[in-house]
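A further point concerns the way the authors explain their paired sequence and structure data. For illustration, here is how one protein appears when written out as sequence plus structure tokens:
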Amino acid sequence: MENESLSLYDNRLQNKEINILKTILPYLGSTAQKNISMMISYLQMQKTMEYFENPENTMQISAMEKKNSTSDILNAIKVYCNDNEKRQIDQVLNAMQMLSTYEILFNGGND
């Protein structure tokens, strides 16, 4: 489902009303889509400002986001990429893995 791919940040700042508004957008005319999209953006900005008024929320996001290596970040953004971008990310990940293996072999041989 879509909620599974949302980041922790998005999960904290979404609510049922915003998700319902996003869901009905394709069923509306172009003028209504524009107006509802603006309303969604306003509601999200309002919810973001309310959320970050509490300093503990910033610390909670930092503490709960356990993945912070470059490869974890690249793998996380791949879900939003097209096929060509995914291949490029995979090439970078493969190069990083090769360098890591080389470092292990190279450093292991000097000990």
Remarks:
- Residues 83-110 form the longest helix (28 residues).
- Residues 1-5 have pLDDT under 50 and may be disordered.
- Residues 67-111 form one domain.
- The chain has two domains: 1-66, 67-111.
